[in-house]
């Protein structure tokens, strides 16, 4: 094997974050031909190092890489001057759907990029030629293994392990809700925040493990479940699963129409289920992390880097665009202290391009974020700087809708509701009169409570970016719809806080009319209608919210209250009992579980 330098990795003893080097490399982690480098350290002023040359300097004197693999372009910060390296540079993108904008601005720092099947096609459709798909996930035989009892003696009939976020996993949560309704017949376990040996034990104790992949990729669960000897259920529209497993031979492919039918069949036919699970166990041994890495190396060695060097054009990019691209990529990362890089790049660019509105907007966003995430807000220097930068940006470009939107959000968070209303209404006016001009300048946007967190607004923003990447007109309208939707929502929030229920209702309905599939506006509208005594319409919107986000438990609690108020006690009982079952899914629901449990006394 040639010498390979790969990273950044960190040893995560609790198995919570990005997989450690061993779980990517397998036994190659001990190979003298494969060396790793660490995640960037940015939280200690005395030890900050951002240069790739520092990584090379710390390598053994006689060891030099034949090529470099940067693992996690979407999650880690690319070291300075990596694109200047004399060695071939390969990037690996894991969650392109959360970071397409950032990754696309930095693709030219790499000779070649690997990602999953859907991501590779989307990047190609956007015009990038230096990308292909590869297996990105596998399992670690040392951790993920059979330790359970025979299939028929397992404790749980159906298990799901994963995040229950209503914003990030809307479609999956709808399927989980359907599974939950089978709890009168089967023992169901829906778990979150389970890692390491506890995770392995739970899979081993489950007959069926339900999986639904966000990007139609074969995620880690696709390999870990059969490696533990349990029966994997995975969506049939998955683009990669057939590369590894056959339906009804190694696992079960379900669709929206047959999920319950298939669950029932395989739970009632344990011998057939155990046979498929055992065949899946035998087959999955091919897909360990070590084998995954070996295949990645074989694919890299097929590349002609003399020819591919032409893809690394980042050094030729305009200096301003370089600064913005580096700042955007750092902002998207999960690296502690990342704002050091973001501010460095933006401030460095602003020192040269002092009247550039997008730089002013971007600096304003990170200063506002720093201010609102601080525990002590007595010192308002950051807030005042943020507001000044945004006003300057709008002064240089009066139609700059993103800057107006950000300023409105910041005034809202600071309790300056009248100023927030004025600026958000001006944002809506800009978008309504000249949508393409209003979004000509883009940049960072501020979505409370923290710009590092993901929600469905951010996911939709990324989706608009890759869907309309080569169509500036459609892209502008996609962004404008998102800004207007959220601006109307915040205006509704302000009106609700001011107890202007009629105006709040109007603003929420405007928001839904622009875009009805993100956020919690239907829930908020239901609350406003309930406060106004319009119980039937409130009931209707709560039910709409449950269809969209069935595991958002506060909707259920409010729906139960409505049924109590109108005296529909039969529906009240059934709805409360179903909500109580949902409340048992996660400790996050404990406050609601107590309230729903108390309701049982009224039923009894």
What's this, in brief?
By secondary structure, the protein is α/β, with parallel strands linked by helices. The chain has helices spanning 21-25, 52-57, 96-104, 117-125, 170-180, 196-204, 220-227, 259-268, 270-284, 289-300, 305-308, 319-332, 339-352, 357-373, 381-396, 401-413, 417-433, 435-438, 456-467, 472-497, 501-514, 521-531, 535-548, 553-566, 569-583, 590-603; strands spanning 4-9, 34-38, 67-71, 89-92, 112-115, 131-133, 156-161, 188-191, 206-210, 231-235, 252-254. The radius of gyration is 26 Å and the shape is flat.
Quaternary state reads single chain
Number of DSSP helical runs:
26
Strand portion, in percent? Answer: 5-15%
Q: Kindly report the average pLDDT value.
A: 92
Structural class: alpha/beta
Biggest beta sheet attributes = 6 strands, parallel
Residues in helix, %: 40-55%
List segments where confidence is low: pLDDT < 50 over at least 5 consecutive residues: 15-19
Q: What best-fitting shape do the alpha-carbon axes yield? A: flat
DSSP E strands, number: 11
- As laid out across the biggest beta sheet, the strand order is 2-1-3-4-5-6
Distance between the termini: 71 Å
